[in-house]
Amino acid sequence: MKLKFLGTGTSQGVPVIGCTCEVCTSENPKDKRFRSSVMITTEESRKILIDCGPDFREQMLLNHENNVDIALLTHEHNDHVIGLDDMRPLIFKSGKDMPIYCYERVGHEIKKRFPYAFTDVRYPGAPAFDLHEIENKPFHVLDTEITPIEVIHYKITVFGYKFKNVAYITDANFISDTEKEKLQNLDVLVLNCIRKFDPHPAHFILPDVIALFKELRPKKLFLTHISHHLGLHDIEDKDLPEGMHLAYDGLEIEF
């Protein structure tokens, strides 16, 4: 299986509009970050998208991806769902509704934001979604076992997802001891890290992630959902503890 980072940035992306800091003006491609999303490729070459934000169209084109079999949503914030309308070409090509797996709460929000995808008589150019409500327990789809990881993002619950011995968690500032049991001794753990300093009410910052790395002991940990406040990729990546890395758009991991 493979995990490819389609985007590793925060809700504003990097560069941030109007910002002239050294990160936003960097010419290094690793400092340019779309909104956070990953593509899982299964052993049978099926495609599982995690989150579909406003950069979805460009992410697919730049990474030469031309298919999504199912989408998993972590939560309902716009930087994780508002690109769903851009799935239309894939839906038209397949001739089938796009399966979307998410919390019941998130499904209700999708219906509110894309009501035209759920009408009995749809406009010919409208997308069509097949919502599947999931709970905090493992499920199987596309011959793949997926284990949700329930975390807290400010005041809402968010799902991370585990495949084999790899877990992807974005938009979190708290993980319970019960959920940490699912994250022990992973080959790869992906965690959000919005900045180096100043506690954030909804996201982990670098000291939080370092503490979790020491506690959970994955073989490798990759940082994602990164803002321009974290610093330049090539400098900050070298300063991380051994086994920790900054993810960047286009990075692919095999597992």
Automatic annotation (TrEMBL):
Gene3D superfamilies: Ribonuclease Z/Hydroxyacylglutathione hydrolase-like (3.60.15.10). It comes from the Bacteria. Residues 46-226 form the Metallo-beta-lactamase domain. Pfam families: Lactamase_B_2 (PF12706). InterPro entries: Metallo-B-lactamas, RibonucZ/Hydroxyglut_hydro. PANTHER family: HYDROLASE C777.06C-RELATED, HYDROLASE C777.06C-RELATED-RELATED. This is Beta-lactamase. The lineage of its organism: Bacteria, Pseudomonadati, Bacteroidota, Flavobacteriia, Flavobacteriales.
